[in-house]
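Protein modeling request. Please complete all fields; requests missing the sequence field cannot be processed.
Requester role: graduate student
Desired output: 3D structure, token encoding
Chains: 1
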Amino acid sequence: MDRRTFNTALMGAAVTSLAGCATSGAGGGSGNSGRSVFYQGVGDRLTQFDVDTSAATLTPRGAVTLPSNIQYVWPHPSRKFLYVSSTDAASGNAPNPGKVHRVTAVRVDANGALQLHGEPAVLPQRPIHTSVDATGSYVFNAYNSPSNLTVHRINSDGTVGAQVPQSAKLDTGIFAHQIIPTPSNRSVILVTRGNRPEAKKAEDPGALKIYNFNQSQLTPLANLAVGGKGGHGYGPRHVAFHPNKPWVYVCVESQNEMHMHTMQGDSLSPEPAYKKTTTVGNYDIHFPQATGAIHVHPNGRTVYISNRANATVNFNGKPVFQGGENNIAVFSINQTTGEPTLVQNIDPQSFHIRTFSIDPTGKLLVAASIVDMNVRDGNNVRYVPAGMTVFRIGDDGKLTFVRKYDVELGGKLQWWTGFAALS
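Delivered output (423 residues):
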């Protein structure tokens, strides 16, 4: 399986399709001309939407209920199954550890309809990210608190098999946020974010932990504590691979930056070739401003990253938005050097964009907010519901707002959304 086939199968800048992200298809802006579907996770409910790329519309069709609240979703290379991690634990470093942590196989019918497939596998703690290797033989899960990872077999019928014990002692860092195989499928990256400094707690360092991957086993390959300070001042969240160049883009959450590394064998360059700011303004490390998701367009000419903020202050007895930026930052990619250049920041008209994705044709981007929000409007308070915001993608990669679908969360979180190409 060559590199482009791998990226197409997994669809994602988190590798391609629905892992939150970009798409299958390379070449021109039209990308894949096949059918696609969109999925939305709110609480424990995974909903299917039909996609009309010409009209830029999403139409709800059906849904399945998972054992607990959906955290992440990743497609099998065959496109016939999704692997959904879920938990009843609280998010972040909150003290509620929960009890129902699962990874579940979901069958995808020809029209995109979903059906639970086999028994969910029990996981040891709250999973935060899920991915599948290029052969479709293993599903990886990352856990944030304490930082950890697991590898499970995928059975020949697509159901989730047994966890594979790891023989090697693995350094899993602090606050893992993503686990993803590299395009060669010979190595796996665990992105460990660390934690920002707090009033009574020092900063925890971040790093990219890279492991060799061979027949279900992970062994240490590299530990990239970028910046020369042992990982301090470095809070990486997710990585995204270019579809046909040896370039890797890193979403650096705590510093509101995008970094570009080059692939070096099965590892990455120890330091990035480029560092770019993602926001319009500048923010102190103590201000609650952060990056979110990152995805590369399937034609490889643009990379997108979300900026998010949702902290509140009291106004007239109600919590209202404190301030900061909520937008999609658009970077053009120099096709010779891989350097990203910021060309646009566009407002999704909602707050805390944790998840967004690009349809497999490369024509639409849908950004989803995790929460609703009150905002100050003069002397009044205005309610802004959570939503799914649809943008058209131009030939130059820039975004144009089309519409926002309001989403009633009912006390739940819209934790994950994503496009998928249908087989």
